[in-house]
Amino acid sequence: MRELEFRAWDKDKNRYPRLWTVEFGHDGIDDMLAITETNGSVTISKNFVLEQYTGRKDKHGVKTYESDIVNASIYSDEKPQKLIVQWLGSGFVIEYEDSESDLVLISEFVGSLEVIGNVHKNPELLET
What we know:
Elements: E1 6-10, E2 19-25, E3 28-37, E4 42-45, E5 48-57, E6 63-65, E7 68-72, E8 81-87, E9 92-95, E10 103-105, E11 114-118
Antiparallel strand pairs: 1-5, 2-3, 3-4, 5-6, 7-8, 7-11, 8-9, 9-10
C-alpha cells in the first residue's frame, strides 16, 4: 500500500507550510482546513490547495505531488516535455499530447520523470 501524504499551498501567504496535521471542516475538503505546522502555529482558512503525494519519486528521489511540473517522456528517443501531474478520480495522470488518449498514468513514466517545480511557485515554467 502506498504512503498517504499531503502538502497544502497557502494562497494567502504564497507558500507551502511544513505540515504537522490537516483537519477538515464539517463539509470535508470543500470546507475550512485547519493546518498545524511543525512549529506549532495553526491556520484556519479556505484558501489552501491540498495536494496529494503520488506515491512515486522522480529520477532524483524527489517526491512527486499533484500540481508538480515535471520533465517527462514515455519513449527514450524523444525529448522530455514540461507537464503537470494531476489527480483524475482514480489515479494520477499527466496530460501528454503525444499519446492516443492525451492522459497517461504517472506509472508509465518509469525512470524518466523529473520534478522541476509546481504550478504555484513556478508558473513561468509553463510559459512557451
